[in-house]
Structure formats: C-alpha cells, structure tokens
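Researcher: Re-running this chain for the archive, since the previous output was lost when a drive failed. Same request as before.
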Amino acid sequence: MNYDSPFIKMLEAIANMVIVSILWIIFSIPLVTLVPSSAALFHTVRQVIFGPGRGNGILKDFYASFKDNLKDGIKLSLISILIIAITAEGLWTGYQIWKINIWGLLYMILGVALSFVLIPMIIFIPPALSRFEAGIGTILRIAAMLAMKKPLRSAFFVLLLYVLITIVQIIPLALLVVPALFTDLIRPSVMKDLDEIYQENAVTEEEEEEIEEEDSRVDLDKALSEKKEEKR
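Model: Regenerated structure tokens:
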C-alpha cells in the first residue's frame, strides 16, 4: 500500500481531525476551559495536522498548548461566557419589549448590531491566544480589531458556525469532526491577519525564524514595549 498517496493522506487528516475534535470536547467540558481548549485546537490544526509539524503527536501538542494557555484562558473563558450571557439576555429582553412597544424594536436592533461584533470577537479570542503571549487586555483588543476589520468575514464566520451547529443538531456524530473542520476553514484568513500583527510590532526576521522553529508564541506585550522604547 502506498502510504504517500493522496487518499491515504486524506484519511490520515480526517482521523487526526476526529482525534483533536474529541480532545477539544473533553477539555472543554468544564466550560471555563473553553478558550484554552479552543486555542489548543487552533494550534494543533494549524501546526500539527496541516502545518510544518505534521506527523507530530497530536495529544502531546494539544496538551502542551492547552497548558500554556490555561491561566489566561480561564479568565478569557469567563469573559466570553459573560459576553454571551449579556448578549443573549439583551436580545431576549428586546424581543419581549418589542411585543409591547416600538422601543423594544430599537433595543433589539442595538442588541443585534452589538452581537455582530461580540460574537466574532469571541471566535477570534482563541486564535489570538494561541499565537501571542500577551495580557488579557491585549488579546481582547486583537480579537475586537479582527472582528471589526472585515465585517463581511466576521458575518461569514458566524454564519458558518451556525450552519455547522445546525448540522451537529441533525447529525450528532458530526461533532466528532466539526470543531476541527470549523477551525481549519477559518485558519488561513485568521493566520494571515495574526502574522501581519506581529510583523508590524518589532518582530525581526531572525526572531520570526526562531519562533517558527521552536513553534512558540510571540510575546506581543514585550514587542510592543520594545517598540515604544525605540520611539523615545
């Protein structure tokens, strides 16, 4: 059997996507670990399954990324859960008021407009965390910037997520591949913007090569601080 054939490679990729999706499900069960597990998912799909680290141990890389992102990831998970709860409550309240008077409609429109920024922002948090070693405030700013930078892309990501969730509701077994599939579909566009961010923030070519070789996260806060010092 030719193990280098496209068919075998495709089967290998699907098997790896199932494995990493199962890992994501298990590590996300506490909910407060949703962001670090999603960051580990993004890292593993980007670096191990379809990236230069192809063939490396999925469990090893997933767990290492999860562990690195756990401390800040828990805080970001709580913030994300709070954002989702507030957005959902606002939309529900607006809908209830809408039944009574016109002000509810305006409230509802405002809630929908905010959700088109906040929901994509939550989608961008894990990729930013997986790529950058930075404070919570910096990660949130990056996620918000990416959400607002390309509104049509953000709307597409939300729609794609909705479609995949609907598929899982119809075919529950699809959950075994949907997390990795969604991550892989958004990966090229997101990585392009994340690469632009660290290239704009005092990361030299030598540092970039070192980061790629060691597969480590970029210390963005340090880069920004060094950049400010250079300007003084």
